[in-house]
Write the structure tokens for this entry.
Amino acid sequence: MSELDIARREAKLAAQQLSESWEEINLLYSIGEILGRTVNLDDAALTILTEISETVEAKRAAIFVHDAGSGLLQPLAVLGAGTAKLTAIGIDDQTSVAARVFRTRQPLLVPEGDLESPLETPVRAGAMLSVPVMWTSPTGSIPLGVVTLSGRGAGGRFTAGDQKLVAAIASQIGTAIQIDRLVKASVETERLSHEMQLAHDLQMHLLPSPGVVAPDATCAARVEPALSVGGDFYHLFKLGQGRTGVLIGDVSSHGYQAALIMALTMSAMAIHAQNSEDPGEAIAALLVTLSQELQQTEMFLSLCYVVVDPERGELRYANTGHPHAFVVAADGAVERLTAIDPPLGLGTDAPRGSRRAWRRGSDLLVLFTDGVSDARDDRGRVLGETRVLEVIKARRADSPQRVVDGVFALVEGHMGRVTPEDDQALVVLRS
């Protein structure tokens, strides 16, 4: 063979290799374009699979994506299966090519007759090429799925070049899957954030305006949930003949479930408070209403319900495990309205009522939850009940609103930029 013939042969081979490389480069670019403009990976998967199959001349193909929750490889796109239905494949399946590739994280060229799983029959016709879909994170490579190809034209076998090309495409698919998941997670987080804000707004609207008890009493109140929604709350009732009902509650948790218990309590108590003059009887009726819900959620509820009766000069109350309930006298003396019964949900006995004298115009009713006194600073130091009461005693002659403002100024000053660990609620009333 002359030097000219050798040169012509080498040029022809180079042109052929260049043509094949160009086809591969063009395919990679085309798939990059598809993934770049797609919003939903599900919509682009079949188009990508078709492009791959045409390039490597495969009649059957599938893209599987791993579902971590079920441990299954779920088919994302299927080509050439006809009417047969391709089902999910367990990653521990010992006969499945896709499952083995996912487990080993290595591509596999399988000759006809080897590893023929019934689950892969719809996309298997002769030899099979299977490549893992990977995502490279800062902590290492993570398998996300598998691409399988089979039924190459004229019974041909897949080559190492085919494997290299599909591996490059699988890398693009892996990036797309991860981006798709992050986008969906971001949308879900945004949706939950929006729903939490709506729930917070609803919860705040459930709390009554302190002005509802005027002119029988002057009242101020404030609730600050640790999360968007919480389990600390208060309620106010005009009971007739100058009497005022005041309820404060603290559900044993915070978040959605606590907020649901809170809403149910407020709704039920609005009825029971009007149907019973005795606070103990009203809370006993509430316990009957809530017992099933508290049992199912394994939550409990501390409550203090007070009825102020200026005409009789009397205060009546029932306290089920609520520690921070006080009457502050004009001279600064502080009397705790002691909890006699356990929180609702921790006992079955009917709560009992108590009473004490009430001095119109001078006595100050103060109810708050432990999120106020247990507020912590950046060094973990607890504010404490004593300091809260000192502010209240110092402002006892002021309006209830001034007292509330003073207490929360103390709490916020103590916490600084620290996020509260618990809900905070405070009610102050003078008749």
